[in-house]
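Running this now, will post back.
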Amino acid sequence: MEKKRDQQTVAESKTRLVEQINNSLHSGDYSRALDLLRGAAAEFPNDTELSGLEKLAHDGVKRTAEANRLITESQELFAQQKSAEAIQVLRKAYELDKRNSLARAILANALVEHAHSVLETDWLEAETLTNQALALNPAHPTANTIRNLIVEQKKTSSAEDWVAQARKLQSSGDLFVALAWVAEGLAVHPDHPKLLQIQEAIQRDQGARRRQARRGDLQDLRRMELEIDGAADAAAKQALAGRIQAVAAKHWTDGEILSIANGLLNRLGLVPQESSTGSPRSKGAAVIFHVPRPNAPNPSGADTSQLPPSKVPPSKIPPANVPTATAPPSKVPANMAPPRIVRRGKIAPTPPEPPLPPPQAFTVSVAEPSPPSAKVASSLAQPKQRTGSNSTTLILLSISTAAIILFTAIFFARKHPTPPLAKTTAAAPAVSAPAVSAPTVSAPAVSAPAQTTPEPPPPALPLSSDTAAAKITPNTLPPADSSPSLGTLVVIAGQDGAKVFLNGKLQRQLTQAGQLRLPNLELKDYVVQISKSGFQDPPQQKIHIRKGEQAKLIFNLQPQPRLASLAIAGGAPGTTVLVDQTPVGTIQPDGTLSVSSVNPGDHTVELRKERFKPRQFKKHFVVGGTISLAAADAALEAAPAELTITFAPADAKVALVKGELLKMVTSGVPLNLAAGTYTLTARTGERISRSSTLEVIAGQSRTLDLSLAPSGMSKWDDPGAWQHEKDSFIHKGGDFVLYGVVPASGTFVFSAMLLKGHLLQWVLNYTDPKNYVLFQMDDNNFYRTVIRNGEKTDEIKVADKADKKTFRTFQIRVRATEIVHQIKHGDSWTVLDRWTHPGADLSLGKFGFYLPGTDQLALSSFAHYGDLNIH
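Update: finished.
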């Protein structure tokens, strides 16, 4: 039990860890993810899942670094007035790391700036760029302003511009977009012959495509007819029924296709011919599409009343006095739009259309008082279904569609009231459709225009209903104002004492309590304007006054500006902005800053940021105006860095390399360098080369001391155990004699001779007596053996003949990824072994010699050239 609890504890710990790592990855905090992974390496060694997450984190770090590099590159391009190239670079940065908020903000600002620059010459391109910017930042204020300017540009653009773009879209085959474009163009240039011609051609093309698709679907239905006899089992029949219904759903208004589909489904035997009063919640039956028949007999009231009612509570009247419909929703496959009503319904005063006999009939019954109060009751006719069937059911009637038809019927009845009709005693049948198991859903209410002064709701009006079609008969209609033949307008200004103009005529009253009510207005169009001293005149508005209606207009009065504004977009976050040497703000993380308190007149605007060159602008500010600085203006050039490198010995060769730049370094002489990543290389007189990367930060002054001289015998764990005799250092026995530098990276160069013993032996990657890599040499061969947990693995032997009683010189280069052994023959070096071990850091642990028992070793020289320490 204790072991199980421990296992459960470990599993829970790992689950929490994985969740924290995933959260860091999703938020783009890859460094945090790597820190968590490093901390868990000891607890969960060689865990496959954590290894995969570590790879994702490393990939994220690389993408973020590359994205930041591209952002810096884009700023340089902006400074060189290469906006188009800079935007392409920013797009790459955003695609690399879409969680990078800085890349998103700078790209959005750059797109807006470019859109503004091409607005006068190519508003279509400006619209594309603005939409792209709004997709990145929907609340971008400048983008919304440009979009409004584009709307004005469209209104003033020539018809030929619309025609050219419409033809371009038409030739590309995107007919829906082309048709929408033509409709927009006709709104600006009504009845333009070329636009009408293109519209007609597109509609003909669409019609031809629809007819071609219909012919193909008819052929599919005929092919399915041949497959019916071969459908032996229930599963095959259900699959075939699903295909038939899918075709029928595409042509829900086509009587011929629906008739063929009905016949095929009946032949499959999935739906009985007779109506069923079974449970509306039964599942598994296929639903037949019913075709309206003009000559269908009108069922009697008794026949209609036999339809099983759906127990759905009537919906309540919303405050806005708009009817809502309540009915059970239909289940529709996720990948298919719900089929609509396959029937035509007509509204009074025309004679009622005879409904279809069950289960081929449905009627919408509407009762509407005034204010409207509609209720919908659903009568469901459900075909008898087979138990245990799992077939997919395609619902004939979408309840949401029924609600729309109901609302349309009420609206139509309002517009065309019918004379009073005699009430019938038979219950009006409600919407009839195959039922499915689903909760009741109410259709959303539509809000009526709000009134300024609340009034009590008028009394409900009696209505009459008909069983064949929805009929609404209001007996009375309460007036909206004291004069039923006139209308009322309420003007809301939000300020007292504002003047109101109707069609340019000043009204005698001023606004009180922020508004003015104008009753008894003639039924016509009005142009309304308001004005108040000390405030800007808002745009005029148009309205049509209707009979008995109280209309409302809202105006937004803004105070007259007395100051000017400064707006910055696409700037470097953290940049201090000064006006006449006085700080006025700091650019935000999204690259923007807005200052609305600048006094009118000439001013010097300055941008300052640490490690960047300051930038100044002379600008003239006017009352109410805004001076805008875009990304190209706000881009700052990085200040050069000062780097001083001192090194010893003085005869070493030290160089800095970045791309094609090669700069030789003189010890102690300062260098002015551009910001970036450099490779620092040092080569000593012994021809030992070392290199490292060096990050140079803009505007930073730094001094770097390099110790290029090798370390020697003093670094051994026990230097006193080495006896200095003549020109050599001698060590007697001691098993593992270890060098005290950890990690053992760098280059080891030594000349050794075995005084006593059989093999010259040394170790690397030593962590304990059971884990290290052993290297050996005798007179004829070089050997390598990996010792892990006391077990020997990965043994090799390389032939190399030498006299073990003479000094042999070795050079060992140790990196995290490989260990390279070379031996000196004469004046040249020969590679004995180049060893790599993926996934392991070979520089970890210590270097040392192995002297078992009474073995003795002599060193005539020993040096360790460590990696360059530039931190």
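DSSP finds 15 helices and 38 strands in the chain. More later if anyone needs it.
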